[in-house]
Each structure stands twice: as C-alpha cells, then as structure tokens.
Amino acid sequence: MADSNESWYARPVFFVADGRQALQFYGDLGFDEAWRHERDGSVVAAQVNREGVELILSQNPERAGRGRLFVELYDGQVAECVESISAAGIQVTDEHFGMPVKAIRDIDGNEILLRDDTLGPADEGTIRANAAASTAARNSVPGCS
C-alpha cells in the first residue's frame, strides 16, 4: 500500500519524429511551451501545456505516432475547441472510443481525443466499466471513499 503522504504528478509522453516540428504543431493547437531540452540543434524533449493538460514530447522516430490522450471537457467546450483548432487548419474527425469523441492527430499520428456530454451518450458497456473503474480508484486511495 502506498504511503498516505505520497503525491503523484504524472504527464503523458508522446514520441515524435522531429521535436521542433512537433512544437510548432502543438503551438498551432493552442499549447504553450513550458520547457525544452536541445542537443546538437535538435529539440529532443519538450513540454507543452494547455488548460491544465501537460504533455511531454520526446523525439524518438522509431516510437513516434503511437500515443493517445483522452481529454474530458465540460459541456459545450469541445465545440469551442473544435472551432478554434479547425480555424488553425488542423483536421478534427468524428470518431468513437466507447463513446463519441472528436479526434486530432499530430503530424506523427499521436491522438488527442476530446469528449464532453453534448457529443452523445457512452455505450452501455463503457458506462459500466467507467463506473467500476472509478469506484475501484476511489477505494484504493487513502481518504477517498
């Protein structure tokens, strides 16, 4: 069991073929650069932030394009995001991930899935699985019940 004073801070990592190009893409997507690490003129790692989402970009062409980030927003916010993202010339597609989502793929194929309840209901199996996972997570954290 984890120490009750333990506090985790996690950030997903998207592997990208070219760190500099990825920074440009995520800047166009509305992310702000928090930091970068360069080696021999290449951006080998960087962090970008947008509205509480922190994402690390790591230059590794062999592993690029396999990431996925699911972002749950408040009702109506997905439409606002899609409007601004589309205005920047970035394609947004309608997809399904156990529920309707809007999907954005970066230049390497990493995915950001946006969701709010205005997109429609989740599949019944997804609702049950999410409820069970949420209950299990709350029960595993000291002080959460």
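[next item in queue]
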Amino acid sequence: MDYKRLGHSVYHCQYHIVVSTKYRRKVLTGGMEEYLKIKVREVSKHHPEIVFISVNTDQDHLHVLVSIPPKIPVSQVVNYIKSNTGRAMRRKFPFLDKVYWGVEGIWSIGYFVSTTGIDAEIIKRYIEYQGVEDSGQAPLEFLDATAVRPKFVIFASPVRIVLFAAVLLFTARITDGQLVKPFDDGLAAHMNY
C-alpha cells in the first residue's frame, strides 16, 4: 500500500470516479479516448499532489482511479477533470460543438465516486487493538520454525523492538567466512539479517 505524506498527516485516499458525457451521448470514440486520457493526466501538472493511478473510457463515460490528499475535496478534483478536459476536447474536436450545440462542456452535471483501500474488517481489528498499541506495548509473536505456533510472546514498545533487532544484528559475528547467528533455536532465522 502506498502511503503519502503531507506536513501533518499520512494518508492513503484513493477514489474511483466515473463521469458521464452530457445526455450519455457516445462521443468518446477512436482517437478521442487516448487524447482524453492524456488531458486527464495533465491535471497533475498543475496539481502535483493529485495522482492518477488509472484512467480509462467507454463511449459515454470516463473512469478514473485517483489518489487525492485529504485537504482537497473530491468535488474539486472532479471539477478540475471536467473543466480542463471538456474545454480541450471541444478545441481539439470541433464536431463536439455541433453535438452539444447551445450548451457548454461535454460532461453531465453529476458524477459517481467511491473510496477504495482497506476493507472494513481490517479497520475494525485495527480499532479493537488500539488500547494495546496506544500504551506502547504491542504483543510480538515469534513463531517456531514451522510458523505454526508461537515460540514465545513478548510485549515491546517500538523502541524495544529496534533495540532487540540491533542486539541481534551486532551479536552476530563472522567466523571462517560464515555468518554465525547469535541464536540457533530458529528465532534468528525470522529476523532477516
């Protein structure tokens, strides 16, 4: 999962946006589709914090998977897409002026949006374990070599975890060109060093 950072926040906000053409007219055909995809991605040139992950079209609508920071409303991004692409499409393809005679733009007024990302079950488990994690004492399970049952469980703060890993790393030594691990009971095999 790709987390992004702002000054005071870390986020993973991806949205699936669907915008349909005005009157659902099937005008996005041939080279228009590719030109539209280019114009949609150009929004990122002016707003680099908006990242387009996937863009695709059908004859009468546009699908976009986009990462939007929490400080920008989704409706504003939809407005950027509609206004920039609609204007460029009418300039590049003059026949659209005849199809949409007397009206501005090529997009319908509304749009569809849904969020993507972590499912509800993962979020529920995360919230349930907040009391343990907030106290700085998260349980760590070290599995035996079969990875079936815990060999032992310790409660450790993030600082203790780093110190524990550092001790393992620095107590390893090289003897006769071979890395000798500090423990030979399977624990060190799980530490990836």
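[queue empty]
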